[in-house]
Each structure stands twice: as C-alpha cells, then as structure tokens.
Amino acid sequence: MSRWRGPLRGVTRENIGREMLAGVTLLAIAIPLNIGYAQTAGLPATAGLYALVFPAIAYTFVVSSRQVVVSPDAAAAALVFSSLTALGVAGENFAVMAAAQAILSGAMFIAASLLKLGFLSKPILIGFVGGLALDILVSQTAKMLGISVARGGEFVEKTGELLGSLAEVNPWSLGMSVLAIAILLGGRRLAPIAPWALVVLVLGSLATWWLNLESRGVAVLGEVTAGPPTFAVPHISVAEWLSLIPSALALTMVTIAEGLLVSRSYAEKNVYRTKPNRDLFAFGTANVLAGLFSSFAVGSSTSRTAAMDAASSRTQLPTLVTAVGALLLLLFGTSILATIPAPAIGAVVAVAVVRLLGLGELKALWAQSRSECLVGASCFVGVLVLGPLGGLGLAFVLSLVNLARRAAHPRIDLLGPADGSPEGAETVFAARSDLGETAPGVVILRFAAPVFFANGVEIAEGVKDRVRLAPVEVSAVVLDLEGVSDIDVTGAEALAGVREWLERRGLSLSYSRARSELRGRLAHFGLTERTAMFATNREAVDTLRTDTECAG
C-alpha cells in the first residue's frame, strides 16, 4: 500500500511508470485543448497554458478525488467570453476581468465548501452545457472554413453571418479541417488514449510551413508570449467586481454540478472514497490561483478525466507531470506554437465539444420525465437566444415552477379502513395499507409533501372529500405526517381550517409519525392544541379504538 499523501496518494513502485506516461499523454491532450479554449474565451493562448501550472498544482494537494483533472473546459470558456462581452469588456481589460471573474468564482467555491452546498439539476446542466457547445461549434466552424464572424455576436447573429459568408470559404482551411476531423475521429477508434489532438496540431503546423499556407489565407496562432506565469492582482473598480458576480456564480454552479458528478462516478467505479466539500475547496483554490496568475476560470474536465481513466491512471501524478511540462514549454518552447493553424485548432475544439451537445441525454430525459426534459430544452434554447445567464435564469424559474406544480397536487393515500369501499371509490381512496382492520370510523390519511402555500388548500379539500366519501361513518381522522418535511404559514392556516371543520362535525383530528422538527413547527403554529400526537399508526388505532369503546 502507498504511504504517499496529497497528489502522490496511490502512487507505488509498481504503477509510477504508468502514471508518468499518463502524465505525458495528458500534457499532449491538454496543450492543444487549452490553447483552443483560451481562444474561445477571447484570451491569448498563454492564459490556457498558465492554467496548467500553479492552479493545477495547488488543486492536486487539496482534492480528494484521485482522478478528476482540473482545467478550463469548453462550457466555461464560452461563458467567460459571452458574459464579458455582454458587459462591454474589450481590449487589454478583457484578460484582467477574466482573471477577476476566476477569483470570484474561487471564492464562491470555497464558500460552498464551508456551507456544504453543491447542487444543480441534471436537466439544467444538460441544457446549459449543450447550448454553450452549439454556440462554440458555430465559432469553430467559421474558423475551420476560414471565415471571420463577429466574436461578440449572439448565436443567431453569428449563425446568420456564417451562412451569409459561405461563398468566402477558404479551400485550404476547409481541406485541413476535413483531414483534421478525419484523423481525430479515426484515431479515437484505433487508439483512444493516443494524443490525436497533438498529432493534428503538429501535422497542421508542418503542412502550413511546407506549403506556405499562411500566404494562401490560412490563419495561424501567431506569436505566443514566453515566460512563466506571474503573480498579479486584478486592478479593477468595485463596480466592475460587482458586475462579475452573476457570471462567476453561473461558472461556479455549473462546475459544482459537473465536478461532483464526475468525481463520484469515478470513485464508485474504481472503489475509493471522495470528500465532496473538500473537492469544492480544491476547485476554489485552483480558481483563485488561476485569477492571480493571469488565467481564467477552471473546472473539472470530463474528457481529460476519461482519458486518464482509460490510461489506467488512479492518482493525481499525471497533473503534476503536465504542470512541469507546461512550465518548460512556457520557458523554452513557445516559438513552436506560432505556426499552429487556426483550422486545426478549430477542429480539435469542435470534436471535443460536439459530445457536449446533450441531444442523447435530452432524448433519455424525455423518456424519463417530459417536464424535466422541457426544462433542459428551454435552458438549451435560452442560452442561444438570451445568452448563458439568461438561459440559466430561465431554466431555474421553470424548474421552480415545475417543482411547485408537482408539490401543489400531492397524492393523498387512505390507510384505513381496510374494507367496505363503495364501487368507484378507488379514485378517492388511492392506497391501502397492511394495517388490516382499524377501529370503526377511524380514517388514516397520508400525504407525502411539505404543506405550503401551493398545496395547502388542495390538501385541506382532499381531507374533507375523503371524510365525506368514506364508506363508513367517520368518528376520527388521523393524519400520517411521516412524509411531511415542513409547513408554512399558509399551510398551517389550511390545516387549522380542517381541524375546525372536523370539530364542527363532532370529529377528532390526530397526528401520527411526525418528525421532531415538524412537531416543533406544528406547536409554533398552535396546531397541537386539542390534537393528539401518536408515534405510530398502530398506536393511534389502538388508542382511538379504546376511546370509541369507552364512549360506547
């Protein structure tokens, strides 16, 4: 067993060679992708490379997951660009604002870790990431065709501009893009763990130099500034910091949802434990350092984590190898990046993000829950029409409406009496229990939902209907509250109204199986006065049977 801790946890003499080789593979995959994502975010290539050094190193010392790779990803890059352009940021201030945004996101991660938060519904995540992926694909398609489109434009505007400029397609860019995609897709089938993205960029650079394609209209990456990342605190106004909060929150929420999901899935697959709140703190640390070292927001990389799993890596050592390799490249080798052709970068990014469109996931959601599928689809369309933040906000509103709609119509189950229901009463008496016979005239009702403003009236009317339509004369009503998690003021008023309605008819109301927190809430609202509280339904039945017999 390994005695190493931190990033070397899990490293042994037997697997260290494999882990080092996996690190070389990760470096080969990460360099082209990070360059592409930096361009997607509207930043220089160095911003993508800087993310591979200090943010990644710090992350490995904190994170509990042995496999999740931290890095900029397509969704985050698109959100960074769209949110900053929506704020009117341009020029040299763009990189400074992106760094500040990463710091804010890091602070939110740390706060989420301390508060033990971390949630975003799967439909919203699918729709949000899918919409961003489609927006990225339009930009990368333009790059692959050698067409220039407005970088800050909305999806509809960019799509229209692209379609209107098809006559200007550069045949050399198109040919290179087709070959690059063929190599990427074909190589993935032949050898999934091989660094095909790096192969495409190397071949593309050689072809550009040999055929002098730059003079034929093929765009290249250009000069990449050499030197290690340097520490710098973004100097922006308080108003600018505040303007970045919504987009930083969106970046944080998306990464929380995706990062914890990826971490949990690989931990379950490879049988080791993770600590979600510690992982949130690790993402926070990485983002703060990304902002302080001139990079942009980072998160979990699903594609690179999958590549490391396929390479049988089970430690964070490959991330450290990648950090060392990226630092050496920044110190001594950035000149070799200058001739990388833009169409090849576009092809690498396009192939990476096309799997994020989520069409298959939306189809599966449709089969599982149509209402949640519609939430995901609305987020997808909203991102394209309203922008990332608008689409995310729309999806949240629809999710809350969907949640309230379902909670507003809770199922009310009849747990007794067991026999004697009139014909056709099954639509009212929705369930039977295994209690057997209850005391004569005792009706036990159960509803599994919080009692609140959206359903209080319906629950009250449901109780009254079940008393009216009971197949026997009712003398007592017991509400089984095991499934009730909370009650608000409106719900309390509705329940008080039920008690008064029953008392006017000479019927008693009792509660059973209420949680301790709920009992406190009921007492706070005065709903325990003149109302018995039972620990179990059996206790309620036995007590009420005795009371009935004594009264008789």
Main attributes of the structure:
single chain; 552 residues; mainly alpha; five-stranded mixed β-sheet; two-stranded antiparallel ribbon; 7 strands; 60% helix; elongated
Your description of this structure?
The structure is a single chain. With 552 residues, the protein is mainly α. The protein is built from 22 helices and 7 strands. The chain has helices spanning 16-40, 45-50, 54-62, 74-86, 93-115, 122-145, 155-164, 171-190, 196-211, 238-243, 245-270, 276-292, 302-310, 317-332, 342-353, 359-368, 370-386, 388-407, 456-468, 489-504, 516-524, 537-551, and strands at residues 70-71, 299-300, 412-416, 442-447, 476-480, 508-512, 532-534. It is elongated, with a radius of gyration of 30 Å. Mean pLDDT is 83; it is low at 417-437.
Give the helix proportion (percent range). 55-70%
Strand arrangement in the largest pleated sheet: 3-4-5-6-7
Q: How many angstroms separate the termini?
A: 74 Å
**Radius of gyration (Å):** 30 Å
- Uncertain segments are 417-437
Given the helix and strand composition, which structural class is it? mainly alpha
Biggest β-sheet description: 5 strands, mixed
What is the 3D form? elongated
Let me know the average pLDDT. 83
Number of strands: 7
Element string (H = helix, E = strand): HHHEHHHHHHHHHEHHHHHHEEHEHEHEH
Strand content bin? 5-15%
Q: Can you count the helices? A: 22
